[in-house]
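Hey,
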Amino acid sequence: MDRRHFFQSLAATAAAAASVAPSALLHASTGASDASKPLFNANPHRTPLRGFQGQDVSCDSALIEGKVPAALRGVFYRNGPGLFERGTQRYEHWFDGDGLVHAWRFTDQGVSHRARFVRTSKFVAEQEANEFLLPAFGSAIKAKAPIRSSDSLNTANTSAILLGDRLLAMWEGGSAYSLDPQTLETRGTVAWSPELKGMPFSAHPKVEADGTFWNFGTMMGKMVLYHLSPKGELLKHAVFDAPTGAMVHDFAVSQRHLIFLLPPINLNRDALRAGKGFAQAMVWNAQESLKVLVVDKADFSKRRVLEMPPYMVFHFGNAWEANNVIKVDFVKSADLGVMNDWMPKMMRGEATQSPSSTPAFLSIDLNRGRISIAERSENLEFPRVDPRFVAQRNRYLYYPVGLNRANGDGELNGLMRLDIDNGKTDTYSFGDNCSLEEHVMVPKPGSTREGEGWLVGVGFDASRQQSFASVFDAQNLSAGPLALARLPYWVPYCFHGHFYAA
């Protein structure tokens, strides 16, 4: 399967979605007036989902509460959808917004913040036209511009990671965009080799402690695997038929294998032709199994498929193996409810209970071809591990978690460290007024012990209508934040990012 066949499949699917008029989207003013957003006025927790209008923002000196550790120096890159409306149209799905990359810099002078939109070809054209021109993942938008490849639809809105001298802004189904790590200026799309130009490159690469870089991409029933050097050189790749699944968001890496969980999702092309967005055209097949794909890191042609009960899977924490038994942790939910029910309501500013997403732990016995699963009950997402232990035996996992919210809306308002050896947890709650994003573990300089460092992340304070960065002792979350760096403004929610020590 080469690039040409990938793009032919994409064009056929996009043409089906583009052949109908756009659905009636929520009217939204492009000005500063709040009168057109009554649901957002009634629910201050949803303010970040209003999005920006395409402007870049910066703050040279955030207000510090507490004290940032003297050894915590570097830059924390984040990425997420930041623009949701143009003219009288508003996206119906969170995943549709154009990518806004953030840099939180921790220096001797304090904490600064800068956010710039990725100048994708889509963003530039739509900024000039002041209207949506291209189909989106979860909103029915009629194409008014040519669709030449997946990168015509690329929003570069899901994660940001350094590879060599480039900061990569990544999306689910197209090329990575290269940014200047200092200025966040967009340089353009990245091609790992001529034959892979424009091929999907997911937003969830895995980087081992020595810098070894693994990634994948999926599109129209095909899967692409990438193995890159720490400098971003392509070492090997493979393209093959995926066992199943219209959406594969993340994966895990152990010492010897790449592990994928492929939920039982199909794409209803008739629904696309009828005017649905890609997300709404996804069909959950509860009677089918979730496919577990295990790929040999040394030889991508050595692949094995096992089966387990159907779950929806977005994110993994880590994987490791011993005696040909792979241990994998992930966050599971029941089906597509979070995608096709909760997110559209959230994007309208509604206060609505989110479906539960809980931690799960797989044991994949390759000797016997058997799988077992253990589960916990906490409502959480966005698991992270100490970056020095990716693809190695780890003891700790870190999550944003929902803790005792009086309004019962299921928002993630706290942090949790889980000790997977004994099941004990260490938690901290920000209370009902704050919503937390992904937090990453940053090792202390010179340390070698797992978990010795800080947990750094971002949140939104609804009572102050401000966004903030938080710093915790990763070994003592219950003691509360060591420091909060508050911005004089709010920013749209992000998905993922990484911290790089100075």
